[in-house]
């Protein structure tokens, strides 16, 4: 981020950028409520920046930001995606010898015995993978049929291991504690390529997600913030992170690192699903309480 | 410090001396706490008691609250028993050993909570040290699932909270007048009776202080039960976190936090009353 985008931005425009790590939606809301906004550009997760957060954000200026070049569905009034990632099925290659081809295999304990690792986060895709496994088409996931998802999850509930952090997801599948895990594509890649663990993964039925740039309402550097976002998602710079990690650019005209290209979610868009962040944002309380109630049973 | 000043007849100065501390507490503790309570009634603006009604009629919040208080109680009882006897071992040891024991108790205390919780995951997981040892010894064939169980949470939290019992117990024991114990022995009480009827009552306030500290801290625990526990061990803090971080719902979070605070105060008041009565009746007897 710093090397690929922020330093070149300072070089080109002379605007100094200070990084503060630790994205925190609650902190951003408090800043805006208290009218003490110290962040000019915010790189939030996919739950942030929908119309539900309109009170906290400045509208993006698409006369500056190249909206036409952004992958369809990944830019809206208050946010634009800067990087794309996905939720994939990763598996331990000692335990699983025939490659799984989708979430139905994740729920098939007879064909693929062993425990399953799932992300312990109601909005992280656990209901989505259950519905995909149950035969729901990727473009018909929303509105989520939560009772149906829970019924499907119940079929393997006693085999589920709930992971809390991305590194834990790599550890449980790498050690063989679980035979399959739902995890981020970059985590699956890290386990397989960087850590050389007996892990492989499939992009089949991946669920695409993105991280988004947005501008907290009331920033004093509005014009510079719009400029920085335009710079970060430009065709010239948006592909820079793919030199280091399998995170795809949102700009369809950006060039990516050729050795990383096969490992990017955007190289496998056929048959993938996407999070409907607008629907999720409007229903997050219901999704979360259904999840907590189910998990605690 | 304050008592010493009172004896010196300079008590007039002491309220002023604690003013900076009280100001600090007011700014960084009371005001934020008040904000949390106020928001539980005013978020959304017309909330009134609605947040409380919703939380109290939600089976999930009640279940998570049950998990929290059950675990806090179990951990407090275990920590007090183990911590008290650990402090007693320190009391009975020669100075060299005593320093070693104190150091051994404090060393984990200086390590980050997150690191200690993760360390327990390394020890307890299926491929962890403990299971590998048992398999290596031929005692078991398949790893025993230890991580993500109530057992793991109990062990982890008890270990992490032990110093909060050991230190007040040790402080109480170090102040015990050895003459009283000799007197008890010389008056014909055996070592067991001396321990239970003289030593324990003299040091029980230390154990009670440790129990109170441990219980309050255990109710607020978040990282350890989340990392070590299974789905049935999740604490109420998880719901508060998800209300604030995921939904920005200060009202629900505030109501949950306020209810936990009230429950802790009531439980402590009840516990304190019981203890006070126990000590008073002992003195009368």
Keywords:
heterodimer; A: 297 residues; alpha/beta; D-Maltodextrin-Binding Protein, domain 2; 9-stranded mixed sheet; 9 strands; B: 285 residues; mainly alpha; MetI-like fold; 13 helices; globular; disordered N terminus
Helix content of chain B: over 70%
Task: Give the percentage of residues in beta strands of chain A.
Answer: 15-25%
Oligomer: heterodimer
Question: Which structural class do you get from the secondary structure elements of chain B?
Answer: mainly alpha
Structural class of the helix and strand makeup of chain A? alpha/beta
Largest interface: A-B, 23 and 26 residues
CATH architecture of the largest domain in chain A: 3-Layer(aba) Sandwich
Q: Report the principal-axis shape of chain A.
A: globular
Percent helix of chain A, as a range, is 25-40%
Give the overall pLDDT of chain A as a whole number.
94
Let me know the average pLDDT of chain B.
88
Model description:
The complex is a heterodimer of chains A (297) and B (285). Chain A has 297 residues and is α/β, with parallel strands linked by helices. Chain A has two domains: 2-84 and 210-266, 3-Layer(aba) Sandwich (D-Maltodextrin-Binding Protein, domain 2); 85-208 and 274-296, D-Maltodextrin-Binding Protein, domain 2 (3-Layer(aba) Sandwich). Chain A is built from nine helices and nine strands. In chain A, strands 1, 2, 3, 4, 5, 6, 7, 8 and 9 form a nine-stranded mixed sheet that branches. In chain A, α4 (126-133) crosses α5 (146-154) and α6 (166-174) crosses α7 (185-194). Chain A is globular and about 60 Å long. By secondary structure, chain B is mainly α. Chain B has one domain: Orthogonal Bundle (MetI-like fold), CATH 1.10.3720.10. Chain B has helices at 2-8, 14-42, 50-56, 59-92, 95-106, 113-124, 129-136, 150-174, 178-186, 191-219, 223-228, 236-246, 250-284. In chain B, α12 (236-246) runs antiparallel to α13 (250-284). Chain B is globular, with a radius of gyration of 23 Å. Chain B starts with a helix and ends with a helix. Mean pLDDT of chain B is 88; it is low at 1-6. The chains are: A alpha/beta (297), B mainly alpha (285). The A-B interface holds A 24-26, 29, 47, 122-123, 161-162, 164, 168, 175-177, 284-285, 288-289, 292-293, 295-297 and B 58-60, 63-64, 67, 121, 125-127, 148, 226-227, 230-232, 234, 238-239, 242, 244-249.
């Amino acid at each position: 981020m710093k090397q690929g985008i922020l330093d070149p931005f300072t070089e080109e425009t002379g605007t100094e950028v200070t990084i503060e790590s630790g994205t925190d939606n609650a902190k951003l809301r408090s800043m805006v409520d208290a009218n003490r906004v110290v962040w000019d550009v915010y790189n939030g997760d996919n739950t942030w920046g929908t119309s539900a957060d309109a009170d906290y954000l400045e509208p993006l200026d698409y006369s500056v930001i190249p909206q036409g070049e952004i992958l369809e569905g990944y830019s809206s009034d208050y946010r634009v995606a800067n990087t794309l990632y996905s939720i994939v099925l990763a598996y331990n290659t000692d335990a699983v010898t025939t490659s799984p081809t989708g979430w139905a295999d994740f729920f098939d304990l007879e064909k693929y015995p062993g425990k399953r690792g799932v992300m312990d986060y109601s909005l992280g895709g656990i209901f989505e993978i259950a519905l995909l496994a149950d035969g729901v088409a990727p473009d018909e996931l929303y509105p989520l049929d939560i009772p149906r998802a829970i019924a499907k999850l119940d079929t393997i509930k006693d085999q589920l291991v709930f992971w809390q952090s991305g590194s834990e997801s790599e550890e449980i599948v790498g050690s063989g504690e679980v035979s399959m895990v739902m995890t981020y594509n970059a985590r699956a890649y890290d386990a397989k390529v960087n850590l050389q663990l007996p892990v492989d993964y499939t992009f089949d039925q991946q669920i695409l997600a993105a991280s988004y740039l947005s501008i907290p309402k009331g920033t004093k550097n509005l014009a510079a913030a719009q400029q920085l976002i335009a710079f970060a998602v430009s065709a010239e710079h948006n592909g820079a992170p793919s030199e280091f990690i399998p995170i795809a650019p949102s700009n369809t005209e950006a060039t990516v690192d050729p050795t990383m290209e096969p490992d990017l979610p955007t190289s496998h868009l056929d048959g993938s699903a996407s999070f409907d962040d607008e629907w999720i944002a409007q229903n997050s309380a219901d999704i979360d309480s259904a999840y907590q109630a189910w998990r605690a049973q | 410090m304050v008592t010493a000043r009172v004896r010196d007849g300079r008590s007039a100065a002491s309220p002023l001396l604690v003013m900076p501390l009280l100001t600090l507490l007011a700014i960084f503790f009371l005001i934020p706490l008040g904000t949390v309570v106020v928001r539980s009634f005013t978020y959304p603006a017309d909330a009134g008691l609605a947040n409380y009604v919703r939380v109290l009629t939600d089976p999930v919040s009640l279940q998570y609250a049950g998990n929290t208080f059950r675990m806090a109680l179990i951990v407090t009882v275990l920590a007090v028993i183990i911590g008290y006897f650990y402090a007693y071992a320190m009391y009975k040891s020669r100075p060299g050993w005593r320093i070693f024991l104190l150091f051994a108790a404090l060393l984990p205390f200086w390590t980050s909570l997150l690191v200690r919780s993760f360390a327990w995951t390394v020890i307890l997981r299926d491929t962890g040290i403990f299971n590998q040892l048992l398999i290596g010894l031929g005692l078991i064939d398949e790893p025993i699932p230890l991580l993500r169980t109530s057992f793991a949470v109990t062990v982890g939290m008890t270990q992490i909270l032990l110093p909060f019992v050991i230190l007040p117990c040790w402080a109480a024991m170090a102040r015990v007048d050895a003459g009283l114990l000799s007197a008890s022995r010389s008056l014909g009480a055996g070592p067991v009776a001396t321990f239970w009827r003289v030593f324990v009552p003299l040091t029980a306030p230390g154990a009670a202080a440790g129990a109170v500290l441990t219980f309050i801290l255990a109710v607020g625990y978040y990282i350890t039960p989340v990392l070590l526990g299974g789905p049935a061990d999740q604490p109420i803090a998880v719901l508060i976190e998800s209300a604030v971080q995921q939904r920005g719902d200060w009202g629900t979070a505030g109501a949950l936090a306020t209810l936990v605070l009230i429950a802790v105060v009531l439980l402590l008041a009840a516990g304190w009353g019981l203890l006070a009565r126990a000590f008073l009746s002992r003195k009368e007897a």
